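pinned: reference chain
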Amino acid sequence: MGRYVIRRLLQMIPVFIGATLLIFLMVNVMGDPIAGLCGDRTCDPATEERLRQDFGLDKPVWQQYLTYMGHVFTGDFGTAFNGQKVIDLMSTAFPITLRLTIVAIAFEIVLGIVLGVLTGLRRGRPVDTSVLMLTLVVIAVPTFVTGLLAQLLFGVKWRIVEPSVSPAAPLDELILPGLVLASVSLAYVTRLTRSSIAENVRSDYVRTAVAKGLPRHRVITRHLLRNSLIPVITFIGTDIGALMGGAIVTERIFNIHGVGFQLYQGILRQNTQTVVGFVTVLVIVFLVANLLVDLLYAVLDPRIRYA
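pinned: its structure tokens
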């Protein structure tokens, strides 16, 4: 196990460098950030030159990347064009998005797996058909439509929740945005769990457990569900990074000042330091989440061993 973890950590290094380099190049292709800062007006040459020197934009791209990576390893993600440290923006945005992601993942695990088990055990029955049709509708409808509809019904018409989240973004105000953020992934988790349960319910080890006279709930939880969760855990693990980075639409609808909001503002204003800094942390989150998922495999299925 120890060797496996060390090997995976070493494998993360080239992946991290490759991903950050690609992001850095893509952000620089977006256009000249100084020209974007000036907008439609012509930049004052002296001011433009000073800004390029201050932000290191007068150097070649490869040199900018090396300088940036050197600063990243010391915890310095640069400075935004408004003079605010990117690390300060992160310290306010990431806790909010982390809470939103936790709510979304909780919906995926609780609702998605429960519905998947229910439909997998009742394959072909009306409840199975109804849930499958509902998940197809959720997957087909874009998230911004789901979000706006939920905000209109629960926030404006019925006044069950506030239409917008307050700047502090407490956990109770993130329940509806979390459900909207998780909606598509929740549908996929339901369908994955259903397929896995329906396939494994006919396995020899399940029939053996039933023949031994074990209670039904024990057969389902200890034998059937445990062996059916590996593809579901894989999906949820990879979904953590996607939820944190892909919350732009949900955060815009509910006025949440999290990672998605900062990324949107950074892209809109061509603030390369902010965009690259936030995406760099998201890459780290994605890599760590995948490592944890791989380690969970051995817990779910003891037959899996790490060399």
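why pinned: The chain has a mean pLDDT of 85. DSSP finds 14 helices and no strands in the chain.
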